[in-house]
Amino acid sequence: MYDICVVGFGAIGTLYSLVLERSGKARVTAVCRSNYRVVVDHGVDIVSDKFGQESAWRPYRVVSTPEEAADRDYEFIVCCFKALPDIIPTPALIQPLLNKSKAFVLLQNGIGIESDLQEASPHATIISGCCWIDTTAVDNGRKVLHSSLEILTLGYHRSQALHETNQLALDRFVELLRQGNSTPEPTSNIDAERWRKILWNASFSTLCTLSRAPVSDLLRKDVISSTMPVIRGLMTEVIRVARAAGIDNNELPDAAVDKTIELTVEKYGEDPTGVKQPEYFKPSMTVDLDARRPMEVEVIVGGIIRRARKLDVPTPQLDLVYASLRVLQLAILEDVPRVRSGPV
CATH code for 2-188? Predict the structure, then answer.
């Protein structure tokens, strides 16, 4: 039986804790800070089209801080909290756990999110995951809702040297997920996959946030002639930075821009016949702004901007988005000073 620590027990952390325990080979210690009392007192009701239903579910063990969790070693430490390096870097947030495992899994958004953890734990395996999953926690964390969409791409970054050790850890984690009825997709090039996902996050997600609107509002016939050139322009800048960073057209084709737009319009755009209503969905960054919570500005947009400056790639549209989001982020941090302690 593998001991696994999941830090951050929101919707994604809850679902993958359930999956890991359903493998029959893992017991999960969940680090819950903001929702500790809810999970302990009530458990979590899970309603998933893919994984079924659970009533008042709890993992093997629930603790409120990383310090409490650091009483044993773990096969994996899985980070499911939002990466907010402008508030507290990941190594600082999980500091008591850094020497409790030789393998960390980052189920987080962004570019460059692994760098500070690699520096803090240079001999550890760091598995990076890109989640495409439609899930949300409601009722103050007492219930997690999930549709059938669940795509998880996993791999380790090129900068890691211990290939054999890394591959064994990746294979083991993937197998646990599969035995829990998830469908993870291992990749030998997680860097390219992160750039692929950031295409959507840096365009649709940021524009939804700045306009405080669901995705479907960006695709309405009355505004799409204005919004689509901006979305396409942001994606094109992301591709340019990725190319300069060494991601070639075979790894992330230029056609990914059209494909990403096509899939989004198909899911959230207006039906010309008027028969089908577009799905209502707000990206997590937009939800965070609505709730006055810190947003993933630095890892989603800031990471691209910093890479672009280092590589001397101009990004005028991304610069405008980044500057605007930083203003909103600062207002949130000034209103809620306690976030600097790093909530999970």
Answer: 3.40.50.720
